[in-house]
Amino acid sequence: MINSADKLKVDRRDGKLVMAQIYVAFIALLIGGLAGLLQVLVRSGRFELPAGIGYYQILTVHGVVLGLVLTTFFIMGFMQACVSKTAGTFTTKQRTIAWIGFWLMTIGTVMAAVMILLNEASVLYTFYAPLQAHFLFYLGLTLVVVGSWLGSAAIIMKYAEWRRANPGTPSPLLTFMALVNVLMWIVATLGVAATVLIQLLPWSLGLVETVNVGVSRTLFWYFGHPLVYFWLLPAYMAWYVIIPKIIGGKIFSDSLARMSFILFLLFSIPVGFHHQLLEPGIDAAWKFLQVVLTFLVVIPSLMTAFSLFATFETFGRSKGAKGLFGWFKMLPWGDARFAVPFIGMLSFIPAGAGGLINASNQMNQVVHNTIWVTGHFHLTLATAVVLTFFGITFWLVPHLTGRVLTKAINKLALIQGVLWAIGMTFMSGAMHAAGLLGAPRRSAFSEYGGAPQAAEWIPYQVAQAVGGSILFLAIILMLYIFVNLAFFAPKGEEEFPIGEMSTHAEPAPMVFENWKIWMGITVLLILFAYTIPFIDLIQNAPPGSKGYNNLW
Amino acid sequence: MHMHKFEKVWLIFGVGTLLVFLTVLGVSAFYLGNQPPSCLATIDPEKVETQAPFNEPGLKKVEGKAWDYELVFVAQAFNYNPGDVEIPFGATVKIIATTKDVIHGFEVAGTNINMMLEPGYISEHITTFDKTGEYLILCNEYCGAGHHLMTSKIEVVES
């Protein structure tokens, strides 16, 4: 599976497509990071927003721009780069489709952003009805999703083309993984597309009077949980395939990597109720069923952890490491392409433990909608995933722009990663602690009428502001590194690292490429988990809700 | 497909732990009755104030039920009715709440009382107040500009 194409660079035309998306992602990082800084400062109680800007307006910016825009653009770009590199350059038709997708996503982002800035859409990135934003906000988000479908279509077409040209051969691992992620994304986004197109858009345009809140939330969370796996799987692509090459080791097992991705496809979607455990309109037994399905992702997660550390240990021992943990010292700690994503991997240990708590049928009640949850996804998305994306940026951007990561920039990148770890330890740690005491998420600074309980939370909020400020410095540093790599770093050849199989690994069984089976099981699981409670939500629905657009 | 021996051990251990964990959750939910609030009852969100029990928010003593009191809350942007309430120490109380407008949260800080209030649905939670003191009720689901000012108060007092 290592053929001559692996020696080549990503085609220049595909490179431009990828870079366009990465530019948008880093602009989003700047805007969203600034919004985040303002939020932690406000919540410290020692700072007020100037010029009548609302806290919740800034919070909407932060969530939309970082949770939806940065992630979707970066992931589309990264996956297209992986596919172009391992399955071959896109055809003109495929590339054109991907470009149309990029522009739709960009136009959609601008539309949503303008509505947020005009304070017509301070509904946060989850836009729960019956809070009602301007219809252009919903339309903008629709364009982002539709655009991402076109970007996904290019990946699917390339995969199909590769399979036709190489019958009976397993597809390149990175292409396979990208394909799994876009398939999951398409199935998942059908839910959010349905609530926006069928419910929210007509309602915000005044074509229908009321909205079914329970159905809308259920469709949103049908999408909302696979969304987090859509963020995570590209990071796993880097952990499984790219990191082994960077450290000089081998991929532990091609087949097991594929199997874990298939399991993520199956078990990421029929699980949205664990975000809705405290909702009155869903039967408790169905909630429990989806809780059980949620926990099945523990299996591929354990497989991933095993593979990564097996790769690290095998590599260390091949370098002569002794003792139980001697291999740990052999890892290339001075290489930011490895060290920064490694910080991300470490953060995934407490992040995963927190996730188990959140999804637990009963413990959820202790932490639901407290700032504990915010602390949780700042470890998963905003550390594990984002630091891995930064680690990818350190080689992908110079690879595409014909430049190199210099020693000096590598050093800055290491500092950036450490700053991030320090800032996040303060911020996320304080969020987890305050959440356990009851401090709510998504709330501006408040003394809650002088309640003594609320006074206990304020020191933690100050700690969050300290951590958030350090994180903002790390963001500035990252933007400097990005601009350097994109425009100023010395010309040269930066490697696109793709791991090789260890010599005794067997070829992957072809059953993994049988999408009739895997998509079939995916659909069956979704129907099993959702059909009855969904019919229930419609049949036993209360009178609908009219829209509220004057509450912010 | 080949799997390393250590990986088999690791996965068997992991999946075994998972099964134990899910069994604990299941026994807690279905045998001990620790279910998340899933009342399933509905109400017209436009007519909350005219319908029992929401026409009379506040604490009410009840007889012949598994709980001693019913505590009715009506939420709307950006307040709860009642704004504060006294509960006798040791009382078992069924909290019944709904919203008149958008989605709100109902969290009694420092306790396990935590529910989503969604327009059209009634949320319930049964609990025993076995510690005296003042408890802050707050909205933990974003509802608009005054979201962080939306509070109420429970005082658990020796009767």
Question: How would you describe the overall organization of this protein?
Answer:
The radius of gyration of chain A is 23 Å and the shape is globular. With 552 residues, chain A is an all-alpha fold. In chain A, 71% of the residues lie in helices and 0% in strands. Chain A has helices spanning 12-43, 55-87, 92-117, 135-165, 173-204, 213-247, 254-267, 284-295, 298-318, 327-330, 336-359, 364-367, 371-401, 407-436, 452-488, 515-539. Chain A contains 16 helices and no strands. The termini of chain A are far apart. The mean pLDDT of chain B is 93. Chain B is 17% helix and 35% strand. The N and C termini of chain B lie far apart (69 Å). Chain B has 1 helix and 10 strands. In chain B, a hairpin with a 5-residue loop joins strand 6 and strand 7. Chain B has one helix at 5-31; strands spanning 58-61, 69-76, 79-81, 84-88, 92-99, 104-108, 114-117, 123-128, 133-138, 151-157. In chain B, strands 1, 2, 3, 5 and 8 form a 5-stranded mixed beta sheet that branches. Chain B has a 5-stranded mixed beta sheet with strand order 4-10-9-6-7, with no helix packed on it. The interface between A and B is large, with 72 and 68 residues. Chain B: It catalyses: 4 Fe(II)-[cytochrome c] + O2 + 8 H(+)(in) = 4 Fe(III)-[cytochrome c] + 2 H2O + 4 H(+)(out). Chain B: InterPro entries: Ba3_CcO_II_C, CcO_II-like_C, Copper_CuA, Cupredoxin, NosZ/Cyto_c_oxidase_sub2. Chain B: It is found in: Cell envelope. Chain B: Pfam families: COX2. Chain B: Residues 55-159 form the Cytochrome oxidase subunit II copper A binding domain.
- Look at the structure and give the mean pLDDT of chain B: 93
Question: How many structural domains of chain A?
Answer: 1
Provide the helix percentage of chain A. over 70%
- Oligomerization: heterodimer
Determine the CATH topology of chain A.
Answer: Cytochrome C Oxidase, Chain A
Biggest sheet layout of chain B: 5 strands, mixed
Kindly provide the radius of gyration of chain A, computed on alpha-carbon positions and rounded to a whole number of angstroms: 23 Å
> Total helix count of chain B?
1
Q: How many strand units of chain A?
A: 0
Which runs of chain A of at least 5 residues are low in confidence (pLDDT < 50)? 1-6
CATH superfamily of chain A: Cytochrome c oxidase-like, subunit I domain
- Rounded to an integer in angstroms, the radius of gyration calculated over CA atoms of chain B is 20 Å
Overall CATH class of chain A: Mainly Alpha
Q: Report the CATH superfamily of the largest domain in chain B.
A: Cupredoxins -  blue copper proteins
How large is the share of residues in beta strands of chain A? Answer: under 5%
Sheet having the most strands of chain A: none
Order of helices and strands of chain B: HEEEEEEEEEE
Number of strands of chain B: 10
Number of domains of chain B: 2
Task: Quickly name the level 1 CATH class of the largest domain in chain B.
Answer: Mainly Beta
> pLDDT under 50 segments of chain B (min length 5)?
none
